[in-house]
Specification:
four-stranded antiparallel beta sheet; 29 strands
């Protein structure tokens, strides 16, 4: 189906590392974590009345920090259902998929693209269009125009498309199947002039706290609570969940999220290095699963780089050029993993001073990678140089092996150390070993998966 290819700009500025999306609203505040806290066996928090126990959706994750640089899930859309892979991104709201309208710049062959039908187009005067464009208003020549969107990236990439609505097939943890009609973006014009290729996925799953996100839409239908979380394994893979069925009732470090931001922004934190204060205070941190690495604004980045460099004096490491990241070291012999080199480095700590000094400890595994050449590289980057100005981002590298929870109802962000190689279950914290990630009982619905009338819910 051909759609009218008009341009209507969504009021966001999206920042990416290798085209991974973190979306900022225009009024985002100035220069600004997630932490680990060991816990014993944890009880599970049951949903409140009205949602029902087991009303969460659980998705296996695929991907890694290096060399892929992203984590993705599979979602089933349309009728007949078709499976698409999405980068998970807590830094943006709008979910979009490459679509055949037809498409310019898409990275998938035509038979892999989402094919929209005319009746699923969202009109410009529809409330869903206003949600996508919030806080601005859609630019409509006439009320029955199609609802267009555009997302611009700081690396000069962009995604242009039309807003549509279609059925998503989701399996809840209680076994029931739901097929809500959700609003998302059909992207038909992709530009990527930057030096890095885009991810090999079909689109981006927006998990921000705005009303355009898939989570907010599911909550508005009373399918699940407005809570999400992810557990990214340092070995690759992990899981994502929507809803609060598997949120532990104890052992979680909680900090308030800013009520003035569309994004997962923390209250101020102080930076420590090797257990000692650095004098760097009042940092506000954005949690973003759409960023592969962690970014500090220029002054903080320079201070951290200086501290790390001076702490390596007299150690058997030499600076080396590696195309993977800007700052890398080599040893006497190539490193096989971060465990071979971590003892040379110190722990970075973010202490959230207004919350009883809750701490996020970034041990070397949370800011280093080992490349294909056997070099150790710093996974903390200069955010100002990347186009982030004065923002600080805690990305995937620093969120590994933690269950990170974004509770939009209680306006808080939490984390706890976890085994992300195992999928959790409703009757215990972590179930079977994490193998064969695609199964009927999880979030992805295979086309061959049958559903009885009693378990099938259309919204």
């Amino acid at each position: 189906m051909d759609v009218k290819k008009r341009k209507a700009t969504v009021p966001w500025m999206m920042v990416t590392m290798m085209m991974f999306s973190l979306v900022f609203s225009a009024n985002f505040p100035g220069c600004f974590s997630a932490a680990s806290q060991q816990s014993n066996r944890k009880k599970l928090t049951h949903p409140k009345a009205g949602y029902g126990f087991g009303s969460s959706v659980l998705f296996p994750l695929t991907g890694n920090i290096y060399p892929l640089g992203y984590y993705s899930i599979s979602l089933t859309i349309g009728h007949p259902p078709k499976v698409f892979d999405f980068d998970i991104d807590t830094g943006s709201d709008l979910t979009w998929v490459q679509c055949d309208a037809p498409c310019t710049g898409c990275t998938k062959p035509t038979d892999r693209l989402y094919k929209p039908e005319k009746h699923i187009l969202v009109r410009c005067d529809h409330p869903s269009c206003g949600v996508v464009h919030f806080p601005e208003s859609p630019r409509c020549e006439t009320p029955d125009d199609q609802c267009d969107f555009e997302v611009s990236y700081v690396d000069h990439g962009s995604v242009l498309g039309v807003v549509v609505t279609d059925h998503f097939s989701l399996r809840l943890m209680n076994g029931s199947l739901i097929r809500p009609r959700l609003t998302f973006g059909c992207a038909y014009d992709l530009k990527n002039p930057g030096p890095y290729p885009p991810p090999s996925t079909d689109g981006v799953l927006g998990l921000g706290n705005g009303k355009a996100s898939i989570l907010s839409q599911l909550q508005s239908f009373d399918f699940t609570r407005n809570v999400l979380g992810h557990c990214i394994s340092g070995k690759g893979g992990g899981f994502l969940f929507l809803g609060d069925d598997i949120v532990p009732s104890s052992g979680v470090s909680w900090i308030p999220m800013s009520a003035d931001s569309k994004h997962y922004l923390s209250n101020p934190a102080e930076l420590f290095f090797g257990g000692k204060p650095t004098g760097i205070k009042d940092l506000k941190i954005v949690f973003d699963s759409g960023s592969s690495y962690t970014y500090f604004c220029f002054k903080v980045y320079e201070a951290v780089l200086d501290l790390v460099t001076r702490s390596l004096n007299g150690k058997p490491l030499d600076i080396v050029h590696d195309q993977a990241l800007p700052i890398c070291w080599k040893g006497t012999n190539p490193f096989k993993s971060v465990h071979d080199v971590k003892n040379y480095f110190s722990t970075l700590t973010l202490s959230f001073t207004n919350t009883g000094n809750i701490q996020l400890q970034l041990q070397p595994e949370a800011y280093l990678i080992v490349t294909e050449r056997g070099n150790a590289c710093l996974g903390i980057l200069n955010g100002t140089e990347a186009g982030l100005e004065d923002f600080n981002i805690i990305g995937d590298i620093s969120l590994q092996d933690k269950m990170v929870i974004y509770d939009n109802e209680k306006q808080q962000i939490g984390w706890v150390s976890a085994n992300c190689d195992r999928l959790p279950s409703l009757d215990k914290d972590y179930g079977e070993d994490f193998q064969q990630p695609y199964a009927d009982k999880f979030g992805i619905l295979k086309e061959k998966c049958p559903a009885t009338k009693a378990s099938l819910v259309d919204q």
